[in-house]
Each structure stands twice: as C-alpha cells, then as structure tokens.
Design brief:
Helix content is 70%, strand content 0%. It contains 16 helices and no strands. It is found in: Membrane. Pfam families: Wzy_C (PF04932). One of its GO terms (cellular component) is membrane. It is a multi-pass membrane protein.
C-alpha cells in the first residue's frame, strides 16, 4: 500500500531549484519596478508590483517570512483595508455610488503585496537599485524638460503634474539617501554608495526643477530622520562632503535663473505678505488659504458625516456665489490639504482612517531608526521617511486624493515593511 507521504507533487510540476529562481526573478523585478517606474513611467505601471509579487508567492514555500502574520503585520493590513473601506463606504452613504472604489483599490493591492511576503524572500538590493534609477531618470527628464523643451515646470505623466512629480522626486531622492546605511555595510560599498548618492541628488534636482515649493517645508524634519538613522555612523569627512554637495546643489539651483527656483520662492513670500496685508489678488498661496478656511467652516457644519465629493464642490461653489470666497475656488475638487480633504468629504471616519494611515507606519518603522544592522536601519529610515514626507506633502496639496498617490504610498509601505521584517 502506498504511504500517505510517498507522493508529493511539486507546484506546477516545476523542479524546486527552477521554482526558486523564477520566484527570485519575479520578486526582484517587482521591487525594481516600484522604484524605477514611480516617476518616469505611467503610474498604472505600478500595478505590475502586486501582480509580480503574487506570482512569486505562488512559487514559494511556507515560512519565508518568519511568523507571518504577527501582530504588527495584522495591524498594518487592517489599517490599509480600513482606509480602502472608508473610501468606498462614505461616498456610498452620500449617494455617490461606487465612485470611491477608484481610490480604494490601490490600498487593497498593497495588502495583497504585503501578504505575498509570507512566501517570498528577497534581497533589498533591487529596491535600492530601482530607487536610484528612478531618481536618475526623473532628474534627467526634468532637466530635459526645463533646458531643451523650455517648459516652465517639469512634470510627469498624467496625473503626475508638476506638484505630484516634484514632491515624489523629492521622496525618491530622500529614499536613496536612506539606503546609504545599507550600501556602507556592503563589500561593494563604493559603487552602491555613489549610485545611491547620484540618485538622491538627481531626485532633489527633479523636485527643484518642478517648481514645487510645498514639499520643501518638511525637508528639515526629513534630514533629521536621515541623521538619526545613519548620520552618526558616517565619518566626519563624509558628513562634510554630503553637506557641501547638498548645499552646492541647492545653491546652484537657486542662483541659476533658468531654473526659476528663486522666482518661485520669492513669489510665495510676496503672496503670503500681500494676503496678510488684506490684498484680494488671487495667488496660489491666497487660494490655498481661502480653501482651507472654507473647508474648515464646512467641517464645523458636518463634522461627523462630511459632505461627500459632490457635496463639497457644491458647497464651495455656493460659498463663492454668496461672496464668502472667490468664486474661482469652486472649480477645485479637493481642499489642497489631505487632512482637511478627508474630514470635509468623509467626515470623522475619514479623518481617523487617514491619521491611522500616517501613524501606523511611523510607529512600526521609527523604532528601528538608528539601531540594528545597516540593512535593517536603512529600511527603517526609508519606512519612516514615507509617512513623514506624505504628511509634509499633504499640508499644501491633497496627495492621497489621487489613486496614484495612494498606490505609491501604500506600495512603498508594504514593500519596505516586508523587507524590514526579513532583514537580520
């Protein structure tokens, strides 16, 4: 009689070694695409990341991610799922049908990506390589647009206009710099360190050439996270070199008239000064301040349920018709602030879900900043920088109102956490 364990079919009839090679190739391609395609290819290309990760998981074996899911894994997955459910349920409650599904599906794809790590193990080298290539590609593209095409502001594929493109370029650059702890710990430290440094500076250049000013508000906090992560472990000479290089890049961009960086900064300062003096001229600064004021007053009227997508736009147009604000503000479909936009449209559930989406990754990753191996520390710094920068970006623009913004945020968190859990 045949024993129960005498016949053990191999998944898909594929030899184990070949299966493991295919799994490694699929997972590595997924992480490479995440970093490299974020800015230089259409945003929906990133759908390939969860698809490739799930395909890799189908070839994997149990126990690749130690003890998955742990309590932290379940909390992160629950937060991503809840944010998607709020996006879906609240518009339905306001009679807007399934319009929220457009913003919910990116978050659920990230949950699937994180679950795939239960059977997928990979090296973070492909993620850092993808981020470096993404930074270099974005910086080169931005330089081409500004110098050769003569555009006033560099931008990406729709819907990545100048603001989204510039701030994501800044994020890519910072993530490359976060990877320096990993590169310094490798035997091939110089090639990897120079590649990440070049990608980081190119990402910062892409941000500057886009003319996006809002993202630079939180740059001191991001630099502090980087310093906490590996600044003390870098020799004093390297610190001086990095600081001088960064200051030279920023100074050069500001002093070069063709970049229009100085003009954009001066315009912002003058616009704020005129608004505080009571000037009625509509500028990007005054428009934001008036939208924040209008959104805040609408929140006071409906703090629990919110107004919904259509209700918000109708209420803002009504405020303009009644003379409470400039009528031109009625054409904007979001509040240019992620917290206000979530609260005014989706009420208190939307606010709580957004705050949890920010706070949970901070809680998970910040504990590893400054401790552990170079690989683990780099991933912790990068994971901390993602919510820090998105909070910063969301101060002056509604980043997560775009599915592209939600997909990039959620995928970065899922992949970084999966790699962080695997790191020694």
């Amino acid at each position: 009689m045949m024993e129960d364990n005498s016949y053990r079919p191999i998944a898909g009839g594929m030899p184990r070694d070949l299966r493991m090679q295919c799994q490694a190739w699929l997972a590595s391609t997924a992480t490479l695409v995440l970093g490299a395609a974020m800015l230089v290819l259409p945003w929906n290309t990133l759908v390939a990341v969860p698809v490739l990760m799930l395909a890799a998981a189908c070839l994997g074996e149990e126990g690749q991610l130690d003890g998955f899911p742990r309590r932290e894994d379940r909390i992160l997955m629950m937060v991503l799922m809840c944010q998607g459910m709020v996006w879906l349920a609240l518009p339905m409650a306001h009679g807007e049908g399934l319009v929220g599904l457009y913003n919910a599906w990116p978050l659920w794809l990230a949950v699937a990506t994180l679950a795939a790590f239960a059977k997928v193990r990979m090296t973070p080298a492909w993620l850092w390589a993808g981020l470096a290539l993404g930074g270099l590609g974005a910086g080169s593209w931005a330089l081409w647009q500004r110098v050769y095409e003569g555009l006033a502001r560099a931008h990406g594929h729709e819907p990545l206009h100048a603001i989204l493109f510039g701030n994501l370029g800044l994020l890519t650059g910072l993530l490359c710099l976060a990877g320096l702890s990993w590169s310094f710990a490798r035997r091939e430290r110089w090639p990897w360190s120079l590649l990440l440094l070049a990608g980081g500076l190119a990402g910062l250049m892409a941000s500057a050439l886009s003319g996006s000013r809002g993202g630079w508000i939180g740059l001191p906090l991001a630099v502090w996270v980087l310093y906490r992560g590996h600044g003390r472990r870098v020799s004093r000479g390297w610190r001086v070199v990095l600081v001088i290089t960064l200051l030279a890049l920023l100074g050069g961009l500001y002093a070069t008239p063709q970049t229009h960086v100085a003009q954009r900064v001066d315009n912002a300062v003058n616009s704020l000064r005129l608004y505080m003096a009571g000037d009625d001229e509509m500028t990007s600064v005054s428009a934001r301040l008036d939208m924040w004021k209008g959104s805040s007053e609408l929140i006071v009227e409906r703090p629990l349920s919110g107004w919904g997508e259509r209700g918000y736009q109708s209420a803002m147009r009504e405020r303009g018709a009644e003379g409470e604000q400039d009528p031109k503000l009625g054409r904007f479909w979001h509040a240019h602030n992620d917290v206000l936009d979530a609260w005014v449209k989706r009420g208190l559930p939307g606010l709580v879900a957004l705050l949890a989406l920010y706070a949970t990754p901070l809680w998970l990753f910040a504990r590893g900043v400054g401790v552990g191996s170079g690989e683990r520390r780099a991933l912790a710094v990068a994971g901390t920088l993602v919510p820090v920068t998105f909070i910063d970006f969301g101060l002056t623009y509604s980043f997560l109102a775009y599915p592209a913004g939600g997909l990039i945020y959620a995928l970065l968190i899922a992949v970084l956490w999966g790699l962080y859990r695997q790191a020694r």
